[in-house]
Amino acid sequence: MKKKTYYIGLTALLLSIVLLYSCTDLEEIPQDKVTSETLIEDPDLIPNLIAPALGQLKGLWYRESYWGLQEACSDELCFPTRGTDWFDGGVWQEQWLHTWTPVHRDVAATWNRLNSAIAAANFGISVLGTDEDVTDEIKGYRSMLRFLRDFYMYCLIDLYGVSPYRDPYSTDYTTSPVYLTREQAFYFIVSDLKTILDDMPEKASTDYGVPNRDACCMLLAKMYINKEVFVGQAAWDSSLIYLNQIIDPGSYQLADNYFGMFGPDNHLNFLQPGDEAIFVTELDDDQSYGIDDQVIWIKHTFHYNQFLMGDYQNNWNGCVAPEGYLNECWFNDTDTATDVRWVDSTIYPVMAVVNGFNYGQQYNTAGEALGDRGGLPLYFTFDCPLDDANESQGVRVLKYAPRDQPVNIMRTPNDFIIYRYADALLMKAECLARNGNMGEALIIVNEIRTKRKAPALASMELIDILRERGRELYWEGHRRQDMIRFGTFLNPKPLMNKPDPSPETAKLVPIPQTAIEAAEGALKQNPGY
Fold first, then answer.
1. Window from 19-28, 43-52, 134-143, 500-509 with minimum mean pLDDT
2. What are the phi and psi torsion angles at 253 (to 5°)?
């Protein structure tokens, strides 16, 4: 096994318990006699208690979940309709056009997944109890579970503007949860993260893949950098406090190999020079997590006739990098001939695709030009409409390359990086710039650009930081939130059939109709839906 796994023994039992919880209204019903006393009698079981809540992270980072809701409505990713392909009942067009409905497939599924994740965390917290006269290990795992609960609540208030809350120590499972407003949830999450911060384990002294103190600092920094969006009050200085706790010790450096961060077996970067990963979710291609055929980064973008090294013969010809995003972030303010984030051809001899952006005539591994299903040249163009795109239109992106000898083509061996060091640096640059210190912000941005072999900027405006985030963090699940914070999310996208701005209400997605009905009056629909 490539990594330490927590999915053994007690974990299977706990996971089955959690899955019996309601994923919409969190009306938990206790299903067995697992208690804190059980764990104290057998301390070796304690690490496994985190597994159900930690395992919920795995299903967030694909096209129909949290990742898709952050990316497919932004400017940097779109699923165009190609004839009848990728219409899917209109869900992808609704994403791009910001016209979700309360019965949108991914809006409902993501709400349910995040609520299930909160229930999983609450169960673990309840088992570990409130006693302070316990070992540091128990305190650490209790804090990890609270961190995960807070992270899932943060995802909910970011997307939906509301989050359920239930006291994990309450034994009355018949009552509905309290639904916290965005403001209420903001202050709860921030207060709880500060409370657990000093009990969170340091990255260097804990297992790979579990939450650590730096992840807690990063989530606090995310909360504060978005405070103006969440509650209407800017808090750039507060964000800087926690960013500096990550940056100032000097334990992180920018990676020398940009795409090496995202490659197969990227867990081997752990604690090595240039390890940027702060918070990750582990994925193995020799294990099934019930999400096979979902988190596969090649399948949803490459053409049907692109088999890579011969194994991937069922690609779906889906999402693209839109022309407007390419013009904004890549064909201005960088040099695509040198910027290593644009194209890396290391894998090309084996796979006939590149890391980064794939465009122009496509070939197979024998060097033969590929055609589309109609026999026309498979030539990926920069332009691509939302409706009636042909098979070749649109630039295809590869961030997480597969193995050259896959264990199981339905799965991915690449661990998904939720937070990393370059993100922290760019957040610091943004906070400094918003506080009027553009000079120091420019130094940070140019530090990243120099490492990525992009030409240094002579001067900078605030919007340039958003553009740099679009170059550095593309397709990593940050773009919607970034665009909202910088005031560009509602803008028209005329090159892909969105000529008009979106209404202010589009900054939140609708609350699923099923959740509103289950809440029996305790949950109200967001404005505009």
1. 19-28
2. -135, 155
